[in-house]
Amino acid sequence: MDTLDTLADLSGQMELEHAEESRSSTSGQTGPAKPACFTPKEKRAAFVHPAQLPNGKQVKLLKTLLSSACERDCYYCPFRAGRDFRRATFKPQEFAELFMKLNQADMAQGIFLSSGIAAGGANTQNKILDTAEILRNKLGFRGYMHLKIMPGAEKGQVERLMQLADRVSINLEAPNTERLKKLAPHKGFIDELFRPLKWVEEIRQSQPAYRGWNGRWPSTVTQFVAGGSDESDLELLTTTDWLMKNVRLKRAYFSAFRPISDTPLENKAAVDPLREHRLYQASFLLRDYGFDLEEMPFLQNGNLPLPTDPKLAWAQRNLKEKPLEINKAERRELLRIPGIGPKNADAILAARRAGKLRDLTALRRLGIVIARVAPFVLLDGRRADQQLVMF
Ligand code: SF4
């Protein structure tokens, strides 16, 4: 197996890991390692993920592991110790040189690097740090790096990682200690996962003037296995909301549980991917739209209704009978109307400075989808949904 086969092997098993706004180019299949012989096209497809970076730039992101060997036994994970599949490991120098070749050939412009754990989290963290140091300081890589914090890493290692990366992350996987016991009983929720996220914010706050290699500290994200521990959406969003408010978590990723063969959860039913979508919608309402957790339309079991967009459900309950006057609503109120996002709200405020918005045509000129907005607004005192018949 050549180094590209090894890389394709390691990267091809990373589709459960969400990173940036990426669309996986793999088949979506999980399970045993893929065959050793890849065609050149398959090799490329296995590790190149078109992704949108936090600054909006599109890049070819190499999403991979330094090693698929792991001594831990997380119940949901394809890399867990004892699972029967071919493992592969790169040395830091070997991996860094391979990445630079791909980078120079314009096959990969950014990197998302994780690893299975061998000889402890701190030892594995050193391998990721060594790789990043070689890339930044010996080989001169100036592109995007998202680096994983390993469970069991030390605070000094997290700080060094932050000095090298554009984004750092550690996956909580479950929303609290009790739920994590069902997914990964030998992982410490507070000590190994939650505390490093707090360290990141402590380090940022202790050195506010730090400008890093690219002028700022890296952003932080985490990921949950949605439905893996029978947790509710309320539990997942409670933890997400706390992290966004207290340690400036940039975003949470949700990966709907899918059973993997030869793991203790192989017979557990897969979770509907629509649940991921609803969790994302709700987390964006909490982060960007001024909603409180208590306003989410949770069902009695603590889950969001799958058939309905949570913002639409809130509006049907609160705005249907009391539509908002578009010409008077404040920005925070505009953001509560289905079909109006931050850019639309700003466009409405700017248009209002030039004069009253009297009908749906005025909203349509601002790029707003009027069929979504109309049931919940008044335009110059008149219900907008009654104007829809004219369109
Ligand atoms: S520590 Fe990470 S790689 Fe290892 S089994 Fe757990 S989730 Fe998988």
In short:
The chain is of the alpha/beta class and 391 residues long. The chain is 38% helix and 12% strand. The chain is built from 14 helices and 10 strands.
Written description of the protein model:
- The chain has 391 residues and is an alpha/beta fold.
- It has 14 helices and ten strands.
- It has helices at 3-11, 40-47, 92-104, 121-138, 155-164, 177-183, 189-206, 233-246, 273-288, 310-318, 331-334, 342-354, 360-365, 370-373; strands at residues 48-52, 58-65, 110-114, 145-148, 167-169, 219-226, 251-256, 324-325, 377-379, 382-383.
- The strands form two sheets. A seven-stranded mixed beta sheet has the order 1-2-3-4-5-6-7.
- α3 packs across α4 (121-138) and α5 packs across α7.
- The chain binds iron/sulfur cluster.
- Iron/sulfur cluster (SF4) is lined by residues 70, 72, 74, 77, 79-80, 116-117, 184.
Mean pLDDT: 90
Low-pLDDT ranges: 23-38
Shape verdict? globular
**Assembly classification:** single chain
Query: What percent of the residues sit in helical stretches (DSSP H or I)?
Result: 25-40%
Strands ordered across the widest β-sheet: 1-2-3-4-5-6-7
What's the order of the H and E elements? HHEEHEHEHEHHEHEHHEHHHHEE
Q: State the separation between the terminal residues, measured CA to CA.
A: 62 Å
Largest sheet: 7 strands, mixed
Radius of gyration: 23 Å
The beta-strand count equals: 10
Q: Approximately what portion of the residues adopt beta-strand conformation?
A: 5-15%
Q: What compounds sit in this structure?
A: iron/sulfur cluster
Structural class: alpha/beta
Number of helices: 14
